[in-house]
C-alpha cells in the first residue's frame, strides 16, 4: 500500500534539495534550499545517507501528517514546533506517528524552517533536482491537501542468513600447494563445529588427506584466511585471530562474505565457491559502497 | 652490484596483499623488509589499513572502496625500488630467565627425541647466545625469534591452553607465549617474566629488532622471580649491546 505525507496547510512551502548543477550556461539557475547548512544538517541528523528532498517552509505556518510513522528532523529558524499540540525539539530526529498532525508555527528571528524526511519522497526530478524554480517554472510549490508519495525504504543489499551457507573464496597464498585438492575442497559440504569462536571457525567434513603440508614460515594472515591444519580440517581464521600464523592457506573468504561467516551457527552446513579477485572486489563494492558509514571501516 | 629479484605480489583475498621477499629466515631479509616498510610508509598510498611485516614477507591491508589492487601493487613496487636496507648499530638485549625443568617443560622429552640432543645440550644451545626478535604477533607481543640449528614440525594437535611465559619451539623458531591461549609449538621451559602486560606503562617488553638472552634458572628461583613480577618489583635486565649477526 502506498504511503504519503499529506500537507494540510502549505503556507508558503516547497520541496528543496541542493539545486541544479551544470546548467548555468543554459540559463538555468541552481536554486535549491536557501539555507544549505540547515538543509544538510536536517538530512544528516535524520539519518539519510545522501541529501533527500526536504520541505522548505518560508515565513507562514505549516501543517502536515503522514500515513505511516516517519522520522523527521526540523532545522532552520526558531518556530513553535509540535505534534498534536505537544511541543517537539528542533535539530533532533523525531518520529512523526501515522495520522498525527505536525505543526510549524510563528517562524521568528529568521525566515525559513526545514523538515528533513527520513524517507525518499517520490517527486519528479527536473534537470537533476526537485527544487522549485519560479523563473524556469521547474518543480512546484506545495498546496493545501498536497499528497507526497513516499518511496519504498531502500535497502541496497539484502543479506540472507541461513544454512546451507555459500561462502565466496579467493585463492590464498599457498593455493599452489593445494592444486590437487581444490576440487575436493570446493566440492565438500562442511559443518560448523561447536568449537568455534571469534578467533577461528572450525569446520568438520571430509578432511584433506594426503596433502603434504610444507611448513610455512610464520607470516601475516588476513581475516578470512582458511588454513588447513595437519588433521586436514579447515579453520577460517576470523577477526580475533593473531596477525601471524604458519599453517598453509588454501583460500581467503571474500570480504563481502565476512558478515555471513560471522552469522554461521554451530551445526550449520557450509560450502565454498571459488571466485576471482576482481569478482570479490566487485561484490564488496556493491555491498558496502552505498553505505555511507562504510568509510569508517578503514 | 648484485641485482635483487623483484618480490612476488600475492593477494590474500580482496583486502590484503602479501609481498614475498624470500623463503628463508635471514638477517639480510629482515633488513630488506624493514627498509621496504619504511619506504612504503613514506609513499603514503591512500586506502592502506595496516602493514604487518614478518620473517620473509609483508602483509599490506587495504580498502578497495578507497584504492584498487593495481594501485596497491604499484605503490609496493615503487617502495621496493626506493627501499634501502635497514642496518642496526646497537640492539636491546633482554635477559629472560627460564626454568627448563619438569612441569615447566612438558614437551622437553619429545624435543630431545626429535632432535637426538641431550637435555644439557639443548639447554646449552638455547642459552648460548642471544636470539634475534624478527617480529612480534600471533598473540599480543609474542616474539618470534630465530634461528635454531635444527627444525622440528609444529604439533599436529593444537594445545588448547598454553600457560603464559611458556617458551616454545616451532620449526627453527623459538618464542615466548605472552598470554594464556592455544598454541602449536613445543614447550621446553617457562619464564616468570610477563612479556606482555596491558596494565604496564610499556605493555610490550620486546619488539622487532631486539635480542633475547635466555638464562637457565631452577624451579625455586622461578617461583621467587614470579612473585617479584606479580608484586611489580622485578626490573627486567636489559642491556644495550652491539651484537654481531
Structure summary:
The complex is a heterodimer of chains A (298) and B (245). With 298 residues, chain A is mainly beta.
Provide key terms for this protein.
heterodimer, A: 298 residues, mainly beta, Jelly Rolls, 6-stranded antiparallel beta sheet, elongated, B: 245 residues, alpha+beta, Gyrase A, domain 2, Cyclophilin, 31% strand
SSE blueprint and pairings:
The complex is a heterodimer of chains A (298) and B (245).
Chain A: E1 3-9, E2 13-16, H1 36-46, E3 54-58, E4 62-66, E5 70-76, E6 80-83, E7 86-87, E8 93-96, E9 102-105, E10 112-117, E11 147-150, E12 165-171, H2 182-187, E13 190-192, E14 200-204, E15 219-220, E16 225-228, E17 234-237, E18 244-245, E19 249-253, H3 258-261, E20 269-274, H4 277-288
Parallel strand pairs in A: 12-20
Antiparallel strand pairs in A: 1-4, 1-11, 2-3, 3-10, 4-9, 5-8, 5-10, 6-7, 6-9, 12-19, 13-14, 13-20, 14-17, 15-18, 16-17, 16-19
Chain B: E1 8-11, E2 16-20, H1 27-43, E3 48-53, E4 57-62, H2 69-82, E5 91-99, H3 108-115, H4 119-127, E6 131-137, E7 142-146, E8 159-162, E9 166-170, E10 173-176, E11 181-183, E12 186-190, E13 211-217, H5 219-230, E14 237-241
Parallel strand pairs in B: 5-13
Antiparallel strand pairs in B: 1-2, 2-4, 3-4, 5-14, 6-7, 6-13, 7-10, 8-11, 9-10, 9-12
